[in-house]
Design goal:
There is one protein chain. By secondary structure, this protein is mainly α. The chain is 63% helix and 0% strand. The chain has two domains: 145 residues, no CATH class; 191 residues, no CATH class. The longest helix is centred in the middle third of the chain and has 36 residues.
């Protein structure tokens, strides 16, 4: 998968041609003046079918762009910019947002040029094929899935993982935005994220409340009778009811002795203020992270490797009094080790090994421990999940069940500790 930045004409240095400016101004005028159906037809004629366009000047501009010597690079910028001109306008009007998936669908399923088709149609087909292999196109496709909320893909394990993007608002800013995204587009994605996160938190709170009420009522009447009295609500996750129950118990209840994750985090935060230097902080952070790990697993190699990794973080600062910047960097480096470092270095053996040996819920709790003592690193942790999601998004879900469970568990944990899911009363029932 390529990105526009990998092409020779880096966006920071390239100059838009007069033909591009003409095309952009034309589309901007059209999208403001015409209904989406008419604009979509224009888009199809210009960029998909490659058939005659009424405004001859615009048609000639497109021909100039697609037959230039640098067309295979230039066109990628042009088509991406044209898409966002339309999207940026439609996204500001909720009744028009449904046009965005239709636009992406045009790019995804262009008509194959018939035998004898014009050289323009054949050239466009080739250039669109190149564009659909870029990260920018994937970003558009994910946005379309979120707007459609992936309804047609929700419960089919033989479908690609990418169809679940709508379920994870914490991935939106990492998977639906690119460096070129306009301010308006960024605001739209953040608003969708807020709305979807709020809906999940409300659904989770309602589900848990009903489960508790049913359990309490079942002590007085039969389970069947309790179900008739209290209207059942759907489990809002892809976890089984049992697995969701275990996750809630882990993320809300006591995990080490009489302490919850919040208790442990608060104690460590208070302790950090007393440490004399960074070296001691790293030693104490190691103890904090490994305190709940099964010794049989930790002593095999995990603990030693984690300690070695911590020891090698900013060794020149060992004698310094630790500050927030140093601790944020330390937490980031630990997350690299535990989950995945980067898109370029997508090795995630440690993460898979943790999931396989300690289970998804406990592994999520280990990551939660880091985010709770350093809130500023939470977006960085979300980015680690986004890297894994992007890496596997073309895989069928039944091929990566471990990742689906990890994404779902983190959604639950994040909603409880950083969102507004109201389930705190559970700790008094456990």
């Amino acid at each position: 998968m390529t990105t526009l930045n990998e092409h020779p004409l880096n966006r920071y240095f390239r100059q838009s041609s007069p033909q591009e400016h003409l095309l952009y101004e034309h589309l901007l005028y059209c999208v403001k003046a015409e209904p989406p159906s008419r604009v979509m037809e224009r888009f199809r004629r210009l960029f998909v079918d490659g058939i005659g366009y009424r405004e001859q000047e615009i048609w000639l501009a497109v021909e100039h762009i697609i037959f230039s010597k640098q067309a295979e690079q230039e066109f990628l910028y042009v088509i991406n910019r044209c898409c966002h001109i339309l999207i940026n306008h439609w996204q500001m009007q909720p009744q028009l947002c449904g046009s965005i998936p239709e636009l992406v669908s045009l790019l995804e399923n262009p008509h194959t040029p018939a035998l004898g088709s014009s050289r323009v149609a054949k050239r466009l087909q080739r250039l669109l094929q190149i564009f659909t292999q870029t990260e920018e196109y994937l970003t558009l496709r994910r946005l379309a899935l979120v707007i459609n909320q992936g309804v047609e893909l929700s419960n089919n394990d033989s479908k690609p993982l990418g169809g679940l993007i709508h379920r994870y608002p914490y991935l939106y800013e990492h998977c639906l935005l690119s460096e070129d995204s306009s301010y308006e587009h960024q605001q739209m994605i953040r608003q969708i994220k807020t709305d979807m996160q709020h809906k999940f938190e409300c659904d989770l709170s309602q589900y848990v409340t009903n489960q508790v009420r049913q359990a309490q009522l079942s002590r007085q009447v039969s389970t069947t009778a309790a179900s008739r009295i209290i209207k059942p609500t759907n489990n809002p996750t892809l976890l089984s009811d049992r697995d969701l129950g275990l996750a809630l118990k882990q993320f809300v209840g006591k995990v080490e002795g009489t302490h919850t994750y919040q208790d442990l985090a608060q104690h460590f935060i208070a302790h950090m203020k007393q440490v004399p230097n960074f070296k001691v902080l790293k030693d104490d952070f190691y103890q904090y992270l490994t305190s709940g790990i099964n010794p049989a697993y930790g002593k095999r190699q995990f603990n030693d490797k984690l300690y070695s990794h911590l020891k090698n973080i900013l060794p020149d600062s060992d004698s310094q009094k630790p500050n927030e910047l140093i601790f944020v960097r330390t937490c980031s480096q630990v997350l690299n080790h535990l989950v995945v470092e980067s898109k370029q270095n997508a090795n995630h053996f440690v993460f898979v090994d943790l999931l396989s040996n300690l289970g998804t819920t406990f592994t999520t709790g280990l990551l939660l421990k880091i985010a709770l003592v350093c809130h500023k690193v939470k977006p960085y942790l979300e980015k680690r999940f986004a890297i894994l999601f992007n890496h596997y998004e073309s895989f069928n879900r039944d091929g990566v069940p471990w990742l689906v469970k990890a994404l779902e568990n983190f959604n639950v944990a994040s909603s409880i500790h950083f969102g507004k899911a109201d389930v705190s009363y559970l700790k008094y029932l456990m």
